[in-house]
Structures are given as C-alpha cells and as structure tokens.
Amino acid sequence: MINPAAIFKAKSAWGKFASNHPKFPMFLRAAAQSGIKEGHVIEIKITSEEGESLCTNVKLTESDMELFQLAKDMMGA
Q1: Cα distances (Å, whole numbers) of residue 70 to 18, 25, 38, 73
Q2: Residues 9 and 43 in one domain
Q3: Which of 9, 26, 70, 72 has its C-alpha lying 20 to 30 A from 32's C-alpha?
C-alpha cells in the first residue's frame, strides 16, 4: 500500500532538488517530450571530486515504461 505521507515527502524533496538544480527538470521534460520509449538506453555517469568516474546504462523494457508512467502520475506531471 502506498503511504500518502511518503508521497508528500518525496514531492517536497523533489521540489527542493528541482530548485537547487533547475537544469535537471528541464532535461527530464525535454527527454520526455522527445519520447522516451522501450528499447532506448539511459546512461548515468557519476564523477567524484577527485575525477574518478562510475558509469552504467540500462536498455528500457516494457515494465520500465510502466514504472516511469507510475512515477509521472505520482508527481502530477
């Protein structure tokens, strides 16, 4: 069962994150508008202050798309 208080807390945390990093939500909107689809690849790279990198990627599946839709619905997008 979904905890409404947890959803409210997550939405509040997202608002603060978006305020701190305004280009990231713009990136997500642009990506969504271009049509993220099953079979697309999402790559994530993290670079430490020392310059060390960690990178991975995922090829989106049908169930991934269902998860994205749920998250989008929860966030009211």
Answers
A1: 19, 17, 15, 5
A2: no
A3: 9
pLDDT tens digits, the chain, 77 residues: what are they? 778 888 889 889 989 999 999 999 899 889 888 888 999 999 999 999 999 999 999 999 999 999 888 877 776 65
Residue with tokens 């049908």: 62
Q: Give me 2's structure tokens.
A: 């979904």
The closest alpha carbon to 53, from 62, 43, 63, 68, belongs to: 43
Is 31 found in the same domain as 42? no
What pTM does this model have?
0.66
> Phi/psi of residue 41, each to 5°?
-110, 130
